[in-house]
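Progress against Task 2.4 (sequence-to-structure conversion) is shown through the following example record, which the project officer requested during the mid-term review.
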Amino acid sequence: KQVQQSDLSDFDVVALMLDAVVLSDGLVATVALGINTDGQKHILGFRVGNSENQQVCEDLLGSLSRRGFKVPAARRLLAVLDGSLALKNALVSHFPSALIQRCLVHKERNLKGYLSKRHWPELNRLFARLRKSQGAESSKEAADAIAAFLADKNAQARNSFEEAGSELLTLARLEVSNELSVSLLSANCIENVFKNLRRHIGRVSRWRENTDQADRWLASGFILAAQGFHRIKGHKKLPQLIEALELNAHKTLSEEAA
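Structure tokens generated for the chain above:
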């Protein structure tokens, strides 16, 4: 009840992270973590299904809306995703104006799967440059350098990088301080929660899908993890992000009116 039914109407959201954690073969929990205007993290809710599919994601987001979760009308939502099409489709169906920032950690990890290990150090360097970039122009140059590096290495790696497109540069294009990059260019905030959760559920040897066992273990694990929550790194720069998201929303409304 504390995790899944609490009132969210007073949660002033700036960023939303969606990700999934595998409990066992055929049992996956999709989780939503929100970051408010003060930089505080909050586990908003979760759904347990047999995979990270769109229906489960939509059920999760629908439950958040029924509990009062909303994005201020004058502000766009920043959503950090790992590249899952199911998560993206569900998000866009509920929050069509959301700005999507693709997780750079997931994308770098994905690219390494296509490349020889001898290329990993250079890829690490190029992604570090992208993460440290300040503003749209600098981040575009860093992304172009990665594309050029991949051009003659592996066709699938190049296609994977190109597939992400401008969603890798969303935060930088908002022209906010790169002090926020460490927290909002990846899904590490929610991945760290999963690390704590795995320690909590590590001794569960059998998941009973026909009961609420998984829900109880997950809820208790998230409550314990939340006890160690701190405000995100770079939280003092959140007013810049809020202003940028509000300005972006204003531009969108003006363009729609025109």
